[in-house]
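Write out this protein's structure.
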Amino acid sequence: MTLRLGVNIDHVATVRNARGSGYPDPVRAALVAAEAGADGITAHLREDRRHITDDDIARLAEGLTIPLNLEMAATEEMLGIALRHRPHAACIVPERREERTTEGGLDAAGQHDHLAPMVSELTAANIRVSLFIEPDPRQIEAAVRLKAPVIELHTGRYCELTGEAQTTELRRITDAAALAAKNGIEVHAGHGLTFDNVVPIAAIPQLRELNIGHFLIGEAIFDGLGSVVRRMRSLMDAAR
């Protein structure tokens, strides 16, 4: 089964915003990634607009020919934006303003009553809902109760570990993917993945999509975005 690659272009916007200029343009980066073999584009519209902006989302929604995955906090403001632009998918993520990047998975179990109406509204608008969660059976069971068609497993801890600890975390992700798939949920994964650590994750048979951003944008400084997307695509393909 082909494993899809979603390219997150948030940090193209980070570089742009560092100078308050109009470049580099994240929409241009999205088009380059698509031409190089990306299957989708991911963009996180944070509440503080630290990288991607509302205008970026509008232009991405209008200009892309591949699916747009909008990462969003579980707020009424972000729900309204998603319903207005109708991306292919909306991935609900935890968000804290003081964090540098998303530091862990959404507590879908603890926030069931808050998330349930959002999942329903997004689904009714034909937006595919994904929940960004830890590889934890309790969170997967919550996703089942919420009727979320997709989960994205947080791979950040796996990427930070080494040796036997990393092997243990890989097994945890593998087991979570199997459990979710058994319950009819499509399984994605992402956060912190690089050329060096992606292959064991990509080899998990139940995974359908990997979302990768910061590493690819960083490597693009040296080798160009098209080149690094093609290399990541090749590593993922070889793992299957």
